[in-house]
UniProtKB/TrEMBL annotation:
GO molecular function annotations of the record: phosphoglycerate mutase activity
Protein known as: phosphoglycerate mutase (2,3-diphosphoglycerate-dependent)
Similarity comment: family membership: Belongs to the phosphoglycerate mutase family. BPG-dependent PGAM subfamily.
InterPro entries: His_Pase_superF_clade-1, His_PPase_superfam, Phosphogly_mut1
Domain of life: Eukaryota
Enzyme Commission number(s): 5.4.2.11
Residues of the site described as Transition state stabilizer: 176
Key words, A-Z: Glycolysis, Isomerase
Main enzyme class: isomerase
Pfam families, per the entry: His_Phos_1
GO cellular component: cytosol
Length: 244
């Protein structure tokens, strides 16, 4: 699930790895997302190190039927691990561990971070900005390409999340447009051309079933207000851009 609308989404600014919180709309989106997944089994959550993804995680979990407490697990240092450890077995059973990982952070937009997207397009040209935002190999000035973002996000997914799926665990990942585009490219076996046209909505969960090493997309759990989880064709992607 992509996080709910952030304050810089609302202002149409390049956000990247700048750590900004949700808007009130983003809060509502996170709660609605929680209602969509409230009846799905859930054992563990992975989220990025950025507050907008973590806020979305916590707000969504307030709606889950299990009524368990989401607890961020701190493993940055041995001392952090010891200080945040839960010693009661009964309490542990009533918690859902939340693992934060910088590898799931949004793509780092370099020197574009903080600039308005429309004004940047007027300064550098729409085609140049489109290449920075949507191409697979092109990097923004001193930033990451989607290919680079994919390298860290998918590697983390393979090393940390897939083994849990093999063991039968139910996992939720709450992250960002580009880190999730990278993971979906891997799950759906998209080409570098196809992933360019992949658009993700804020606050809309997407369900995948893992079976014998294969991933099957099952769409978005039904909510009280319907929204497309992502546009899968160039025409739909262009339409979404016009709306944005």
């Amino acid at each position: 699930m992509r996080h709910g609308e952030s304050m810089w989404n609302e202002k149409n600014l390049f956000t990247g790895c700048v750590d900004v919180p949700l808007t009130s709309k983003g809060v509502d989106e996170a709660i609605e997302a929680g209602k969509r997944i409230r009846n799905l089994p859930l054992d563990i959550i992975y989220t990025s190190a950025l507050i907008r993804a973590q806020m979305t995680t916590m707000l969504a979990l307030t709606q889950h039927h299990c009524m368990k407490d989401p607890v961020i697990m701190h493993h940055e240092t041995e001392q952090a691990r010891i200080w945040s450890q839960i010693y009661s077995e009964d309490t542990t059973k009533q918690t859902i561990p939340v693992i934060e990982a910088w590898q799931l952070n949004e793509r780092m937009y370099g020197e574009l971070q903080g600039f308005n997207k429309q004004e940047t397009a007027e300064k550098y040209g729409k085609e140049q900005v489109h290449n920075w935002r949507r191409s697979y190999h092109v990097r923004p000035p001193n930033g990451e390409s989607l290919e680079m973002c994919l390298g860290r996000a998918v590697t983390f997914f393979k090393e940390h999340i897939e083994p849990l799926l093999w063991s039968g665990k139910h996992v939720m990942v709450v992250a960002h447009a580009n880190s999730l585009r990278s993971i979906i490219m891997y799950l759906d076996k998209l080409t570098s051309r196809q992933v360019i046209n992949l658009e993700l909505s804020t606050g809309v969960p997407m369900l995948y079933i893992h079976r014998e090493g294969n991933f099957f997309r099952r769409g978005s759990p039904i909510g009280s207000s319907e929204a497309g989880a992502y546009a899968y064709t160039e025409s739909l992607a262009l339409y979404r851009q016009q709306l944005d």
